[in-house]
Amino acid sequence: GHKVTVIAPGLQRTPTPAVSGDSPLSKGEKSATVIRRKFFYPMWPKWLPLYWFLTNKVREEKPDVILCGKALFEGRLAMKLKKKFGIPYIICTYGMEIATWTTYARTRKQLTEVLQHANAVLYINKKTKDELVVLGVSEEKLTLVYPGIDPKILDTKTHDNVFRKYMIEKPYILCVARLIERKGIDDLLEAYSHIHNPIQLVIVGDGPERANLERHAKTLGVAPTFTGSILDEDVYALYADATLFALTPKELPGDYEGFGIVYCEAAYFGLPVVGTRTGGVVEAVENGVTGILAL
């Protein structure tokens, strides 16, 4: 196997021993070394110290390939390293960021250059693939790689105290999302207001739209449970006993749902789902089989 070194930005929260500093990230018999560095500095160009560090790291480790989490700005550094050392690089794309960066002439130009010099480009939905082709990426470079889930992480035993903690009673509809406009929680609340049989709607997650959504729910005369951000194991416990999973993203200018891994998590727990035909959701949910996709 290959030795893997991950260069990641510094943590914005209190680190756990598994993710702090230069540490091994273990997966069974395989392991990766995680090195956390500051990405930007108060100078111009602000990424120059990171580039110097990466240059030294490349000389030291002589990597076979560089895998970039995003095209900008990680891909720009990889492109510079390729020109200097001849190391191939691969770009990961997700959808929303491509739509956003192509809106502006400067970032569109940078994005196009990075993508066209890449040895391979990964995408997670057909809509993004079509956008990449328009940007000049050849079909031969493109590879579809859907996001996956780890059953070992999701497996958890439900504890009654989870329901007491968040004042939840079965049956309930579950929604797990960052509370931003694109997630369409306002539309979900509108649909929920038309359900006459008593069933609780549990919305897990937080974000800048939470206060607006709470006001919107009050206006609609419904009282969903907003849990805010909670522990992962609590989220999995709520998946395990939910009746239905619902998330109704919407497409905004330069912003759409790239895939929706929460639909896969819901499917793992055997939940039927309700989603919308937007972005990559149509590939995460098989309409009429694993769930229902609204227009």
Q: What are the main properties of this structure?
A:
four-stranded parallel beta sheet; six-stranded parallel beta sheet; 295 residues; alpha/beta; 13 strands; 37% helix; elongated; 12 helices
Topology:
Layout: E1 4-9, E2 23-27, E3 30-37, H1 48-61, E4 66-68, H2 71-85, E5 89-92, H3 96-101, H4 105-117, E6 120-123, H5 126-134, E7 142-144, H6 151-154, H7 160-166, E8 172-176, H8 185-192, E9 200-204, H9 210-220, E10 225-228, H10 232-241, E11 244-246, H11 261-268, E12 273-276, H12 281-284, E13 291-294
Parallel strand pairs: 1-3, 4-5, 5-6, 6-7, 8-9, 8-11, 9-10, 11-12, 12-13
Antiparallel strand pairs: 2-3
Helix pairs in contact: 2-4, 8-9
Descriptive overview:
The protein has 295 residues and is of the alpha/beta class. The model is unreliable at 14-24 (pLDDT under 50). The chain has helices spanning 48-61, 71-85, 96-101, 105-117, 126-134, 151-154, 160-166, 185-192, 210-220, 232-241, 261-268, 281-284, and strands spanning 4-9, 23-27, 30-37, 66-68, 89-92, 120-123, 142-144, 172-176, 200-204, 225-228, 244-246, 273-276, 291-294. α8 (185-192) runs parallel beside α9. It is built from twelve helices and 13 strands. The longest helix has 15 residues, at 71-85.
